[in-house]
Amino acid sequence: MNKKIVVAICGASGSIYGIRLLKALLKNPVNIYLVISNAGYKVLEHETGYSGESFSSFLKDKGITFNKNAYLYTHDQDDFFAPPASGSFRNDGMVIAPCSMKTLGAIAAGIADNLIHRAADVNLKEKRPLILLPRETPLNIIHLKNMYMAAKAGATIMPPSPSFYSNPKSISDLVDSVIARVLDCLKIEYDFIREWG
Ligand SMILES: Cc1cc2nc3c(=O)[nH]c(=O)nc-3n(C[C@H](O)[C@H](O)[C@H](O)COP(=O)(O)O)c2cc1C
Question: What distance in Å separates the CA atoms of residue 75 and residue 120, rounded to the nearest whole number?
Fold first, then answer.
């Protein structure tokens, strides 16, 4: 059976993390439920050249290939009728990459104001994996407290801080070093980075 993964892209800098995650996931037989916030679309346009086409076409134009048993479903941020809005939708985890401080704050406060917040809230209450890649620097005490609250509720806080011990040669290598750790958390195999040691 295909793994079901919820992926959200917020309006924090680093849309490339979300795209690279989708690239790695879609190589596998998976069902992806993708939600991009309104701000997420704006930052995507600014950082990646996305210009409003269907997201599948955009990914294909970026050279991303889909496994023949991979399915990508995209949902509007205001669609509370989408599967990830319900606790009865069994999934293997949700990743927010990148996660803005606004969305982190909403999750920490239990405010389910859009589908991303709601799906995260649902995964926490159902004790399913929720992985956040919060992006901001420096962090104020509110950001830190919100990360603490989300972690205490069961989220994995995974700041996108790339590693350098594998001698990266490009931005893509740096991004890969972060995404590999996300895939580890989701228990999804990959071949673009070797296990240390
Ligand atoms: C180019 C750009 C970069 C941004 N980078 C960040 C960021 O790194 N972290 C952050 O928390 N917000 C960032 N923001 C602000 C968020 O987009 C804004 O707070 C938005 O309301 C987040 O909404 P969302 O969580 O629904 O995506 C950025 C905005 C722009 C236009």
Answer: 14
